């Protein structure tokens, strides 16, 4: 994998499903599955998806190539104290600079240290100015990451269920005479969700996000639910990851202009993503179904081909395999 800074823009569509589980509980609603009150379509927050990616890297951190290469630690994780790591970065920055270095230079070096050490800072950004130090009030105290997600939203309305459960053991000694205790959990019988993602090379340059980081991000997205099983999320599956890479339209002789196009983008993201159509299958409609019960009730139609894909775009079918791709269309 290349350690070069990402230079091409990417827009992607992530399709994932839940069966008899709670993909993202709402603490303001008794941990019921989140939903849009206007349409009753299910929601999964961008923060939830980022949490899954962070958890994947926390469980399976890639090997670091060298001390100066990007690290894959996670800053925002359970039990972490952000100020503690922040102080480490400031200490490393001060020790690497001349004694007469300005506070602005120290803040920039501290920010770069945090981006290099922590995958989630380098990828998603974060607020770093949490203490009373050189980062506070600095232009480098907030980092905007190159990778951003939208909320995931189900294609059809969901029907959250509250399921009562029992336990034969009790928690407190005074309840020892009870035969069982009662509880409840919320589930979605079935839902297929879509989330969109956008990756900016302009911000990748600022955080040091590389081509290798991108490849690992897609690996995490494809596998994040495999190691997140729980009583609430027993069956969640990624069904599609469509990655639209902007590669430019120019001839090789015009490399500078081609690089600019790949960085800026060769087509609007919404047009690219809307080329992947998801609807109830003909078989489901013929059976009289108005809502899906499984993925088999859906028809996912990728309308993009090598002939109609916008010039300068390469579509990677990440869920199919690392080499599965369409385009770019030739002149």
Number of beta strands: 15
Report strand %.
Answer: 25-35%
Instruction: Give unreliable regions as ranges.
Output: none
Distance between the termini: 29 Å
Number of helices: 9
Q: Mean pLDDT, as a whole number?
A: 92
Class based on secondary structure composition and strand pairing:
alpha+beta
Give the CA-based shape. flat
Major sheet details: 9 strands, antiparallel
User: How much is the radius of gyration in Å?
Assistant: 23 Å
Could you give the order of the helices and strands? EEEEHHHHEEEEEEHHEHHEHEEE
Helicity range of the residues?
25-40%
Number of domains: 1
List its traits:
alpha+beta, 9-stranded antiparallel beta sheet, 331 residues, 9 helices
């Amino acid at each position: 994998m290349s350690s070069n800074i990402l230079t091409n823009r990417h827009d992607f569509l992530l399709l994932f499903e839940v069966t008899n589980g709670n993909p993202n509980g709402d603490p303001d609603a008794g941990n019921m599955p989140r939903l849009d009150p206007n349409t009753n379509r299910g929601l999964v927050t961008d923060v939830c998806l980022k949490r899954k990616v962070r958890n994947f890297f926390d469980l399976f951190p890639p090997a670091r190539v060298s001390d100066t290469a990007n690290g894959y630690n996670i800053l925002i994780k359970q039990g972490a104290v952000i100020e503690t790591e922040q102080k480490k970065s400031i200490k490393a920055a001060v020790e690497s600079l001349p004694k007469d270095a300005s506070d602005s230079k120290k803040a920039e070096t501290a920010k770069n240290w945090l981006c290099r050490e922590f995958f989630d800072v380098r990828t998603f950004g974060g607020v770093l100015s949490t203490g009373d130090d050189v980062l506070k009030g600095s232009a480098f105290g907030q980092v905007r990451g190159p990778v951003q997600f939208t909320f995931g939203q189900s294609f059809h309305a969901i029907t959250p269920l509250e399921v009562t459960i029992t336990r034969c053991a009790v928690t407190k000694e005074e309840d020892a005479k009870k035969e069982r205790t009662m509880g409840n959990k919320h589930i979605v019988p079935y839902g297929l969700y879509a989330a969109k993602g956008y990756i900016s090379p302009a911000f990748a340059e600022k955080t040091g996000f590389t081509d290798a980081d991108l490849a690992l991000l897609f690996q995490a997205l494809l596998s994040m639910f495999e190691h997140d099983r729980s009583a609430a999320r027993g069956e969640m599956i990624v069904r599609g990851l469509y990655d639209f890479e902007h590669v430019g339209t120019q001839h090789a002789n015009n490399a500078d202009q081609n690089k600019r196009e790949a960085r800026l983008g060769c087509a609007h993201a919404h047009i690219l993503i809307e080329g992947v159509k998801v609807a109830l299958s003909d078989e489901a409609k013929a059976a009289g179904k108005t809502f899906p019960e499984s993925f088999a009730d859906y028809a996912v139609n990728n309308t993009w081909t090598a002939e109609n894909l916008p010039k300068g775009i390469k579509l990677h079918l990440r869920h199919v395999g690392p080499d599965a791709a369409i385009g770019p269309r030739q002149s």
